[in-house]
Write a structure and sequence with these properties.
Jelly Rolls, mainly beta, 9-stranded antiparallel beta sheet, 8-stranded antiparallel beta sheet, 1 helix, 19 strands
C-alpha cells in the first residue's frame, strides 16, 4: 500500500502499468485466486514491501488498487455511500446475478471481480471491516479478504512452486461459515501443495481442521461454545476481521459483539509465508459447495455484493 504523497501515487501508477494477470493457485474448494502479479521487468520496486503503517477508507481508488472485472455486468465502485460505514463510504464489488446460468458456468477465480494492491506488504497486523452478500443455499459465491503472492519460483527448494496465501473467506450460500487457509506451496499441475485450513461454523461453534499440510480433507476439532454467533456475517451489516502475521505464526481474529476473538493461531515457520504479499478482495463462483457441503453449486440468480468499509495495516 502507500502513503498519500504524490511521488508514491506516481510510482504505484507505473507499477500498475507494468503488472499482468497470472492464473495460479489451487481451486480445490478452499482457495481460488487469480491475482495481479508483477513481472521481473518491473524491477525491484515491484518486489519490495512497504514498511509504513497504512489505512484506506475506500473513498476513491487514488491509484492504490488494481481492478479486475471479468464478467458482463460485474462492477467495482469506490466511495459508495453507506450509513453503516465509519466515514460514510465503502467500496462495493459486485458479482452479477444470472438465473439462466448453472453450476459449471463462469466458475473459478478467472472470472473474479477483484481489487488488489499494487504494493506488497510483509509481517504485521491486517484489519478490515467487511459486509458479505447472500444467495440461496443452492447457489454459491466466494467472498474473500486475503494476502497473496506467486511468481512461479521455488525459493525454499522443496520442489513445489512457492504459493503464498493468507485467506479469510465467506460463502453467500452458507454465511455462517468462515474459511481460513494458509498456503506456502502449490503446484496444481503436479497435485502437490502445502497448506493448512480451518472452517468455523458460527451457528454451532463447531471447528474443522485439515489434519496435515498435504491434505484437503477436514476433521472435527470439537465445539467451542464461545464461537456460537448465528447472526455473524448477516447480510447488510459490517464486521471486522483480520490476521496478525509474524515469521513463525499467524493469528486470525474476528470482532464479535463482545469484543475481539481469536479464531485460529497457526504456528511454525514452515507453515507461514515468509515473503511479502499483495492484499486482495475478490468474489467469484465455485462449481461445488465447499466442506461440509456437498454437490454442485448453482451460479447465483441475483447479484452478490462484497462491501469493504476500511482496511488498515500496522507493521510489526
Amino acid at each position: 500500500m502507500c502513503d498519500a504523497s504524490a511521488s508514491r501515487t506516481r510510482a504505484l501508477a507505473l507499477l500498475l502499468a507494468a503488472s499482468v494477470l497470472g492464473a495460479c493457485g489451487r481451486q480445490d474448494g478452499i482457495v481460488g485466486v487469480e491475482p495481479l502479479q508483477t513481472p521481473s521487468s518491473a524491477g525491484a520496486a515491484g518486489n519490495s514491501s512497504d514498511a509504513s503503517a497504512f489505512s484506506d477508507e475506500f473513498v476513491d481508488n487514488s491509484g492504490i488498487w488494481q481492478e479486475q472485472t471479468r464478467l458482463d455486468g460485474a462492477s467495482l465502485a469506490f466511495g459508495t455511500p453507506s450509513t453503516g460505514a465509519r466515514d460514510g463510504n465503502v467500496a462495493e464489488l459486485r458479482l452479477p446475478g444470472h438465473p439462466e446460468l448453472g453450476p459449471d458456468d463462469d466458475t473459478g477465480a478467472g472470472f473474479a471481480t477483484e481489487i488488489a494492491t499494487k504494493q506488497r506488504f510483509h509481517f504485521g497486523t491486517y484489519r478490515s471491516r467487511l459486509g458479505f452478500g447472500a444467495c440461496d443455499a443452492s447457489e454459491e459465491a466466494v467472498m474473500a479478504f486475503l494476502g497473496y503472492f506467486n511468481d512461479g519460483s521455488d525459493g525454499d527448494g522443496d520442489g513445489i512452486v512457492d504459493d503464498l496465501e493468507i485467506d479469510a473467506q465467506v460463502l453467500c450460500g452458507e454465511p455462517q461459515l468462515l474459511y481460513l487457509t494458509v498456503f506456502t506451496d502449490d503446484a496444481p499441475s503436479g497435485g502437490k501443495f502445502r497448506k493448512l485450513s480451518r472452517v468455523i461454523d458460527f451457528s454451532s461453534g463447531e471447528v474443522f481442521d485439515t489434519p496435515s499440510a498435504g491434505s484437503d480433507s477436514f476433521e472435527s476439532s470439537g465445539v467451542d461454545a464461545s464461537l456460537v454467533y448465528p447472526e455473524l456475517f448477516t447480510p447488510g451489516t459490517l464486521y471486522e476481521l483480520g490476521f496478525e502475521w509474524h515469521t513463525d505464526s499467524i493469528r486470525f481474529f474476528v470482532r464479535l459483539p463482545d469484543g475481539e476473538r481469536d479464531v485460529w493461531t497457526l504456528t511454525g515457520a514452515d507453515h507461514v509465508p515468509q515473503q511479502p504479499v499483495y492484499v486482495l478482495y475478490n468474489l467469484w463462483h465455485p462449481a461445488l459447495h465447499w466442506y461440509p457441503g456437498r454437490g454442485s453449486a448453482d451460479y447465483p440468480a441475483n447479484d452478490v455484493t462484497l462491501t469493504v468499509d476500511w482496511l488498515s495495516f500496522e507493521p510489526e
